[in-house]
Amino acid sequence: MMTTRSTRQTLLPINALFIGDIVTQLVFVLDTDTIAEVAGKIAEHAVGIRVARRDAPMVVYFNGEPLPMSETVAGAGIQPLQCLTVRYAE
Fold first, then answer.
1. pLDDT tens across 59-87, in order?
2. Domains of the chain, earliest start first
3. Given this model, what pLDDT does residue 90 score?
4. What SS3 class is residue 75?
5. Which of these, 18, 30, 46, lies nearest to 78 by C-alpha position?
6. How many secondary structure helices (H) and strands (E) does the chain include?
7. Measured between alpha carbons, how far is residue 88 from residues 9, 17, 20, 32, 56 in Å?
8. Residue 14 CB neighbours (<10 A)
């Protein structure tokens, strides 16, 4: 995988649920991914498959709290196999 980021990247498996889906997913993210990138990776497994596609921004929740979309996985303190929830913003 080619990257222009200068920091070392770690691949992390996380549990994820896109609200409206009936399936939780094991999704691999990089600790340097932004939460916006994570939302896209999670949505890829549900939106347009079991969740209707919408023209709306997404919100990612960790421990019940929304995360800033510019934060990184490492910056948010997300560890392997922890659970994230994604939904469309209301």
1. 999 999 999 999 999 999 999 999 999 99
2. 11-88 (3.10.20.270)
3. 83
4. helix
5. 30
6. 2, 5
7. 28, 12, 10, 23, 6
8. 21
